[in-house]
Specification:
Chain A is of the alpha/beta class. Chain A is built from 16 helices and 14 strands. Chain A has helices spanning 42-55, 59-73, 83-89, 108-121, 135-147, 157-162, 164-172, 187-200, 218-226, 228-241, 256-262, 291-294, 332-339, 350-364, 370-382, 404-410; strands at residues 28-29, 32-36, 79-81, 93-97, 126-131, 150-156, 176-180, 205-207, 247-252, 272-280, 296-300, 302-307, 344-349, 391-395. In chain A, helix 3 packs across helix 14, helix 4 (108-121) runs parallel beside helix 5 (135-147) and helix 10 (228-241) crosses helix 11. By secondary structure, chain B is α/β, with parallel strands linked by helices. Chain B has twelve helices and nine strands. Chain B has a nine-stranded parallel beta sheet with strand order 5-4-3-2-1-9-8-7-6. The radius of gyration of chain B is 17 Å and the shape is globular. Classes of the chains: A alpha/beta (415), B alpha/beta (283). The interface between A and B is large, with 35 and 44 residues.
Amino acid sequence: MSNDTPSNGKPNSGTPNSLRNGPDDTGRFGTFGGMFVAETLMPLIKDLTAEYERAKVDPAYLEMMDDFLKHYVGRPSPLYYAERLTKHLGGAKIYFKRDELNHTGAHKINNVLGQILLALRMGKKRIIAETGAGQHGVATATVCARFGLKCIVFMGAVDVERQKPNVFRMKLLGAEIVPVTSGTSTLKDAMNEALRDWVSNVDDTFYCIGTAAGPHPYPEMVRDFQCVIGREAKEQMLEREGRLPDSLIAAIGGGSNAIGLFHPFLDDPSVEMFGVEAAGRGLDTAEHAASMTGGAPGVLHGNRTYLLMDEDGQINDAHSISAGLDYPGVGPEHAWLKDNGRVNYISATDDEALEAFQLCCKLEGIIPALEPSHALAQVMKLAPTFDKDHLMIMNMCGRGDKDIFTVADHLGVTI
Amino acid sequence: MTALTRIDTRFEKLKAEGRAALVTFVTAGDPDFDTAMEIVNGLPGAGADIIELGMPFTDPMADGPAIQAASLRALNVGHNMHKTLDMVRAFRKNDDETPIVLMGYYNPVFIYGNDKFLADAKEAGVDGLIIVDLPPEEDSELCIPAMKAGLNFIRLATPTTDDKRLPKVLTNTSGFLYYVSVLGVTGTKAPVASTVGDAVKRIKRHTKDMGDIPVCVGFGVRTSEQAHDIAKNADGVVAGSVLVDAITDNLDENGKPGPNTATAVHNVVKQLAAGIKAAAQKN
């Protein structure tokens, strides 16, 4: 563990000018965040907030978390020097934070573990989750299987069709999959349906949200669980290079892997940060998922944040080759970090991500997920602009096994 | 605090008559502007005492499939917030007494612009607002500005709103309190009259210190009998999904309304109104 942050506690509280003190008591990061939910859910959200406040300072909870992170998830994940990619690009020294090596193949399990241990404390026996690509669903089904909890995963009917391997994985793990056909049958509709289930089953159900978004306390809680990524990376970089990195780069859908990497570095002004949204077929088209670089502030799913919507406030569909980035909103802390300028938010298109995906396979022998391939696409652009002593960490937040069918399809290959 | 709205006046009148209010919900612009207008114009004649007009939203998290489908039908034919306010203006040309409450979700209001929305809604003839995803914790967003603008801000209370929380929910609530009688989304479960009666009694213990605000009960009310049973215990009965279903059941295979679509809705309202009137006579 790093020196300045308790395992899951609120970091640096009491430092007045810190960028790491959010959210405030109303769940706000600046004007973003909040608790925009129906009255039925308010008492549940208050209970959850209170229980999380107790848990995060309870040594028994933190010890159990650390133990499972180490022996079940396989943490710490390595910080790997991508030597051939570095040479190929001819600029910054590139490191991968290898969260794709976690159990279940992505960063998602860091968060799920924290929430399920909380659900156990609260005596909740029925876990619901939404999923897009299926990674969060698989992680939730996995941890539920481990603790013998009932798991119900809401998934847009469109995603059920295009993510068949993950659907089967979840079923093997004992989860019930509910295909969602309301609205546009994608991730946002899966989240609507999970919220509807929650208001209908308030007594025994815990809603395990997959990203650092939704009503307070989820953005804070999910961030805290994902901060293990940044804490480890900081410690590992200090050990390897004797100093902090110069830049961090991560893909942004809801933004949980990115906030997990960034947050422990927010008060280190020398560290530049880049969040990469999915530009789909281009920001000049209607088919992208870049809510910050191509959207505006609004209120959806319990929080105020940047959204893709029309001039009447109706939510637009997101598009990305990566189902994990295919969401018309973003976590509220990112919205705040965009407006205060601490993080640079940029984007990469489907085609750029595909090119980066292939380059990484060939040069590093790592098949990345399509989500971090968006970050890699920007590494390809940014790294050559930096000096050779510039240290860059890219969050390799998921592995690409799940994506090989999508990639094959785009490359015109029949498997 | 605020001047009396049409809602306050209507409840005073009904109290004098000794009868509960029938509050009817339909979605603005569903299935198209003209049919929705015909439906709304006929609601008072069919027995509705208060009109709730849904502001369509793509992602209505607290509503069941019927009302979400109604929102999408309206949006698909080009409905928007301006047209919702146009409907209110058109209604007010012939009816200056029946209260109108706009009900929906915060984002379309926020994007329209809160101050502009409140001014335009008041000018159009709106009396109250129900914004499902604005709990008391977010009162500074729209609730307090709405009160200042002379609009009632009607809050939902649910079975999860316990005695400790009820005062928080009731503070800044005006017009009436909307008690959501079941845990779940609109239109999926039926309320149980006996538990509704107990819940209303529980709420009344709190409201008597807070201006004795009327309590209306809804979510899942479909039949004349249910309306009758709830009317015995509450100040009003809210019905929504059953009216939306009447629209859905009277569309052709292309989703277009026919000559009977509005009449079908009005017939349902007449039955519900009869249930409520019968409850009054027995009291």
